Amino acid sequence: MTTSPTDKTSRLALTQCPSSQIHILDGGLGRELERIGAPFRQPEWSALSLMEAPDLVAQVHQNFVDAGAQIITTNTYALVPFHIGQQQFTEKAFDLAEHAAKIAKTVANKNNAIAHNDKVVVAGCLPPAFGSYKPELFCAEKLASILLPLIEAQAPYIDFWLVETISSVEEAIAVTSLIKQHSSKPIWLSYSLSNRQDFSKPVTLRSNEPLSAILPTLDSIDAVLFNCSQPEEMEAAIAFTRNHNADIPIGVYANSFSEHVRVHDANEMLSTLREDVTPEKYLAYAQKWVAAGASIVGGCCGIGPAHIKALAQGLVHTLE
Predict the structure, then answer these.
(1) What is the average per-residue pLDDT within 139-149?
(2) Cα–Cα 20 to 30 A to 100, which of 75, 109, 223, 242?
(3) In whole angstroms, what is the distance from residue 297 CA to residue 233 CA?
(4) Is 258 buried (19+), middle (13-18) or exposed (0-12) by CB count in 10 A?
(5) Residue 4 phi/psi, 5° resolution?
(6) Nearest residue to 92 via CA among 144, 139, 52, 32
(7) DSSP character at residue 22
(8) How far apart, in whole angstroms, are the C-alpha atoms of residue 133 and residue 255?
């Protein structure tokens, strides 16, 4: 991977930031699309808005920027056969992913022109190819057929890759290898954690692998994150990772799902959200994450602009 040491995006992705320099990610695009009245249903999820109301996708990006997000993520999470079906994927995935990346880049460029600096950068989302929280469905042989169109379509417009909701080390290794074959841009890997009933037990991946299993994967990426898990899981994951790797940037973007009462599969229907994860409470969690070693903080499903505004106002951050 080659990047210029003077490039601002490279510094964002490759340099560990002290706790006084916190990078603010956006929040959950799908729930914000639903909140503002965009077309939104299962199984297409956030992809439906991209197909039918792309202006509202741009509006959601802008809502997060207005709240203080410095990093906006392309609306490509649902552009997989699991969500839009194999026929639509075969016919439209590349064009839809390209459109999503162009929308995000346009929003970033507009805001950067106003600010006269590179305040906003674009993360190219690479989603779980076979569905969220589904490590048992992962198939390395089929991975390229799903993710390669998303990589090729987004590459000209994004600043770095954000591989989201990784459930297993096998998945992490395979996706990282695929990206490096086709792109030299920085790679951020984001693992999803099991939601423990008993917090005295060790934190694990969705595959039930111990967190120690991710440590070898850190040598080939530019940042490691934890996402789409309950906020209570994150501090232990950050502390463990920082204890074993002093240099890699660590990020967190939790969800606000009521995981312990959910009885349906992920992506099967909309999960209920926790009323106790208010913007103020989320900021309190984030302050603990930063104290434990995180320098990238945002939100996943159910975390909206109000939460991101609380982070932006409550955490010291700069993109230097």
Answers:
(1) 98
(2) 223
(3) 14
(4) middle
(5) -75, 135
(6) 52
(7) -
(8) 13
